[in-house]
Amino acid sequence: MLKISRNNDVLVVAGDVSGDLHASNLVRELKKVAPSLIIHSIGGVRLKEVSDRFVYDLVSKGSFGFVDSVKSFGLWIKLISIVRRFLEDKKPAFVIVVDFYGFNRQVLGLSRDRDIPVYYYIPPQVWASRPKRANTISKICKEIFAIFPFEVDIYKKLGGRVSFFGHPLLDIVPDVDINKKIDIKKDDDFDYKIGILPGSRRSEIENHLGIFSKIFSNIESKFKNSKGYVFAVNEFGDEYYETIIAENYTGNNIRVVRDNNYSIRKDMTFCLTCSGTATLENALMGVPMIVGYKTSRINYELSRAVIRIPYISLVNIILKREAVKEFIQGDLRVNKISAYVIDLLHNNDKYNAMVSEVYSIRKMLGENGVNKRIAEKIVSDFEII
User: Fold this and answer.
1) Can you name the residues that pair with 384 across neighbouring β-strands?
2) How far apart are CA 146 and CA 155, in angstroms?
3) What is the pLDDT of residues 289-344, one digit of tens each?
4) Do 314 and 281 contact (CB within 8 A), yes or no?
5) What is the pairing mode between strands 94-98 and 118-121?
6) Domains along the sequence of the chain with CATH
């Protein structure tokens, strides 16, 4: 057991909205287990709320994709300098990096060179692409906290110290009674609630929100009582979303909502969803969906060259089959998706089968209390004085 004798400083680094959310929840649990820890963070608004010292807002400036990463090279250099100076000045007891491997691989190296223990929470999806990343993580990290059970063997085979305590979404996504969803009989006059989840990054929102708004318009023309709900992230104001919606939809039945506790989304009849964590959130509440994704052509072609799995949706990856329909790049077409969704909503048997299938994932990902168990494990490695 290592003694924290020089100080109780800890650095937590997250680079995107999802990582920021899970990191903030882990920090809350760390504070409960070891109140004397002083948490410094690089992340977003959620980490800022729970940290003692907020070092830098990376989430609002973080990049995604090959082209964006190149454009952000100057920012990366600046951030590496900030991290290096922090590690040398504070000499933290340990570092926790969360997801966002593109930047966090630099944090791993900087921590290793200064003999500072580093934990990886939510490791990159090496089973999908760039498997060599697992070697680096296994060699450097004091412990890896996997979020899918099948990730454990990957890191163990490489000599990594790895644990699976469950998926952190189980701590925040409410359970539901799916029988109530299945028992509902739907017809053309049903009050359909259509969720619109265009992504969390600016580029994703701009690539998907307009298309999803047009799809909703087609759904509304068939089912007149439909209502659309755009689920906004904290990084962008309502006006930003409303401007894009207005450019693509002329009706009055889409509204922007902020739903940090899933109280609205759990009641959605169906969701139009950008690929990402949102697809898994939907599944844990038994919400049927389509999954769409569109990026720049160069990002898409470069991604195709490295991705080794047949699906992009976490739901399909976990279930190992196309439980939810995926519409990627040129296939993300308004009329095609509209026809598919309308047909599915007309067919109660198909709809109910999707509800049951996606919800089955919940039992595969462990039990809630994930962040509490991880916090206890980290603190158990140290004698905090």
Assistant:
1) 4
2) 9
3) 999 999 877 875 666 655 666 888 999 999 999 999 999 999 999 999 999 999 99
4) no
5) parallel
6) 2-167+367-384 (3.40.50.2000), 178-364 (3.40.50.2000)
- Whole-angstrom distance, CA of residue 196 vs CA of residue 201: 15
Taking the C-alpha atoms of residue 280 and residue 276, their distance in angstroms, rounded to an integer, is 8
3-state secondary structure of 285: coil
Written as six digits, the tokens of 257 are 């909502």
- Measured distance CA(238)–CA(243) in Å, rounded: 9
Judge contact between 222 and 192, C-beta under 8 A: no
Q: Which amino acid type is present at position 305? A: A
Contact 364, 125 (CB under 8 A): no
User: Residue 172 forms beta bridges with which residues?
Assistant: none
Instruction: Using alpha carbons, select from 254, 292, 256 the residue that is nearest to residue 276.
Output: 292
pLDDT tens, residue by residue, 10-49: 999 999 989 999 999 999 999 999 999 999 999 999 999 9
Q: Say yes or no to pLDDT of 288 above 80.
A: yes
Residue from 144, 108, 107, 113 nearest 126 by CA = 144
**Through-space distance between the first and last CA atoms of the chain, rounded to whole angstroms:** 12
Do 340 and 325 contact (CB within 8 A), yes or no?
A: yes
Q: What tokens were used for 48?
A: 């800022």
Helix (H, G, I), strand (E, B) or coil at 356: helix
Cα separation of 18 and 235, whole Å?
A: 12
User: Residue 98 forms beta bridges with which residues?
Assistant: 14, 121
Backbone angles phi, psi at 374, to 5 degrees: -65, -45
Across the strands, what pairs with 270? 194
pTM for this structure? 0.87
Q: How many helices and strands (H and E) does the chain possess?
A: 16, 15
